[in-house]
Request: fold
Amino acid sequence: MNWMRSLMLPMAGSVHAREMDNFYIFLVLLTTFFFVLVAGLTVWSVVRYRRRPGVITPHITDNMGLELTWSVIPLLILMGVFFWGVRGFLGATVAPGNSLEITVTAKQWVWSFEYPDGTRTVNEVHVPVGKPVRFVMGSQDVLHSFFVPTMRVKQDVVPGRYTDVWFTPDVEGLHRVACAEYCGKGHSDMAAKIYVDSQEKYQHWLEEGGDEWKSISPVAFGKLLYESKGCSTCHTVDGSRMAGGGPSWKGVFGRMEMMSDHKQYLADENYIRESILNPQAKIVMGYEPIMPTYQGLLRDRELNALIAYIKSLRN
Amino acid sequence: MAAVAHVPAQAHAQTNYLNAQKGVWSWMTTVDHKRIGIMYLSLISTSFFLGGIFALLIRLSLLNPKHMVFGKVIFDAETYNRIFTLHGVVMVFLFIIPSIPAALGNFVLPLMLGAKDVAFPRLNLLSLYIYFVGAVFGIAAMVTGGVDTGWTFYTPYSTTTNSQVTLMTMAAFILGFSSIFTGLNFIATIHKLRAPGMGWFQMPLFCWGIYATAIIQVLATPVLGITLVLLMLERSFQIGIFDPRIGGDPVLFQHFFWFYSHPAVYIMILPGMAIISEIIPTFSQKTIFGYRSIAFSSVAIALVGFLVWGHHMFVSGQSPLASVIFSFLTFLVAIPSGIKIFNWLATMWRGNIKLDAPMLYAISFLLLFSIGGLTGIFLGALSVDIHLTDTYFVVAHFHYVMMGGTVIAFIAGLHYWWPKMTGRMYSEKIARVACALTFIGFNVTFMSQFLLGSRGMPRRYYNYLDQFQPLHAFSTYGSWILGAGLGLTAICLLSSLRKAPDAPRNPWGGRTLEWTTQSPPIEHNFDVDPVLTHGPYDYRKPLPVEVEA
Reply:
């Protein structure tokens, strides 16, 4: 059945995922059997009993035994399916007490994560392999849904209350989070990456942050951050204006910007830094004050890289 | 079916409900259920066309991940979101809910019962006008900016977005009244206007299906009405019932919404099943198998259908215990649908089957609805639903039920009663080709979406990962075949109107009362009030020759 798994389902990243896959494949076989039964009987009847002139059909109105059979057997099968589904569901609902807890905040259209030690990240989360992780989630605006296809888990993220989801990853590497509850313009771009790391790699990441910056130029690192930290859901880099978003980064550096309080400011390093960490301080004329603050979410070297990248986009 | 004093067809061929009175005014003030049915039919067909255009645009935009068509980006994300919302709203509220009951039901139900009209003919006309006003509101919402919430209007997005949500919910609110009045009218008609000799169990099964539907329309629609009023109040006055920022609960909206909208799924599918229960005996020339279990299963679906709304909310944050109970009830409600399928198969067994267009559509229904129902088992099973919900798997599942089920049944019924409604026979050859195209196109479009969903493609996505592109493209090609099939169906039916009336009273050899009167019927349906002498599907004797004329 492995070909069916790889045709129909994404990679399975946990024991729960593989158990759900077994159930899924069982359901595929079960429903295929019943479909072939129905389709086969239909085709057979149509061919075998095709219209012939002068035939008077038998007047068969009902048959209690037959009707009970085709009511009770499906009922019993469905009860089995029901219990199998409940078992997997309860397993996926209750997280073990020793889980690593990560707080998730959803906001149009970024995921941010906070670790017990205060480490905070955007659209990217690292978790150790083989250890249960529980995400405690809240939304700051509308409904979102935290969907990790490779873990076969999904949970709506609701404003005004907490919901949670958990899994024990056992496959190292990149896994993806998608938003599965419609949340407006950037819904389909509201994606995060889960890196399942070995224990050593995870510890190293917690202490040092990522290593990408060491091997590439600040501009290239800034471009990477632009794509991974949620900047690209509101800012373009080609000079076009995104509806409902912020100013394009193209040509912004070194320009005199007219603010909504009718004062002009030069967009220099300090202005960019302030706009990232305290976005409500100065609002460019004609834009809405909708940008979330990145205070505490970016390391200094990341801020520097973003500024370097914006500089590189000057006209 | 009935001992009707027979009058040769020719005697009345000159006058019928279409030409007895002339002029636009005579149509606008008519209380004839047949004319009202025809007007409904033209309005909902227009809605179906509009919703179909939106569907084709959605698929076109998803052809590739960059939304490039002829080298240009076809829509931005905000336009795309409006288009899929309008597709849903138009198809659900303007087309599929009124489709079979208001258009075909209006025309056929009194004829089947042997009645002169529905119980409240003026109320019937009023519900048509209310539908029209609702549609005007809906179009107003579309041309003044559209709606970007999805057809489900989930809060708090719907209470905070600045698109035309208030106007569109107003439209759905008004359309609800049209639906309630139609339901009331049909309940009263079925209770009071059956022909002498027609007990409840001599009634054609179509009437049972419409009856069960009407009960849901009357009981569930008011809940939607109240919910939409609350949504409008929340938007206008911030009363704090759904938006958590002012003390509301967004999940409460989902409970309210699905308390109507799940039973509404049965408003959509029960009339479809009812049509199939007519067509299969007629084209098999054999009595229906398990009349009572089909009739009772309609009522059972209508009642248990009120208790399963929570299966739309397994990941919403409702309590796990509630989810377990809703999952259990969901599996229970699946059984009556399964029973119907086995009954139809048993009806065909040892029949005398002719594959005319209505029967071809009925068989398409049988296959597609089976897929829709069987994939529902995946979604009812809790652990699997968590992975599949809000993905393309759900999109594919409900299109198999709603389009493969209801719409195909609607088209089947349209072909079945077209000669009765218009007095014309359409081209059988073209109708069969159109049916085949529709069937193939439908499967190409939606089968691929099951795979997209199970592989993790969420629904309502403007941008998607490159790995999903081949399946998306495949689905889009299917939508073109499907569009061609439906277009050909329209051509086939409409072109038959250009020729002189040629339909006999009973082109298919049916045994229900509508086939005993002329095609098209006279204003008051029957020359002589029919009296029933035997059941609705009695094929023990061949049809008297003069009735075939």
In short: Chain B has one domain: 9-548.
